[in-house]
Design brief:
It holds the Pfam family Fe_bilin_red. This protein is α+β, with helices and mostly antiparallel strands. The chain is built from 5 helices and 7 strands, in the order αβαββββββααα.
């Protein structure tokens, strides 16, 4: 289900999709079980505009649901979205989301990458346990990524 619909596309996120699915399976999916997805959602194609969409869903002992969707619009659009919901047996684990979006081509190409960790609860003890480590990661190793890539954060550029 991860075969590229537009193999000739000069840019895609298929390697990133495979890496994330492998990482989630290795770390959280030792008992991975694929979930049947309605056929109209598992694969959809619009040959008129050259877009193919694939979706897969699975569960494991540590993840109650993982849903990944890939939109392959060839040279014009490549979009990968994944959301992983933790098992109810790990109530302090956040919901994980990743969006990799590339639209346009040539000089008009825009790439947006978003990673989101949404806490399952919002109390002070939860924040005290996890937020400092996340802030250290953001302000340390990843502090200058946007500048290195010649990009700005949405809050700086758009708001």
């Amino acid at each position: 289900s991860r075969s590229s619909a537009a193999a000739s596309s000069a840019f895609d996120f298929r390697a990133h999709e495979a890496w994330l699915m492998d990482a989630l399976t290795r770390t959280c999916g030792s008992s991975r079980t694929d979930v049947d997805v309605d056929a109209c959602l598992a694969y959809k194609s619009n040959e008129t505009i050259g877009v193919r969409t694939t979706t897969e869903v699975w569960t494991s002992s540590r993840l109650r649901r993982v849903r990944s969707t890939y939109v392959d619009g060839g040279e014009v659009a490549q979009i990968f979205n994944c959301v992983a919901y933790p098992s109810t047996s790990t109530p302090d684990a956040p919901i994980f989301g990743a969006d990799l979006i590339c639209i346009g081509k040539g000089a008009a190409r825009k790439v947006l990458i978003g990673v989101d960790l949404q806490p399952m609860c919002r109390d002070a003890s939860y924040a005290a346990a996890y937020v400092p480590e996340l802030l250290a990661l953001r302000d340390g190793r990843f502090a200058d990524v946007a500048e290195t890539l010649g990009t700005t954060t949405p809050s700086t550029k758009f708001y």
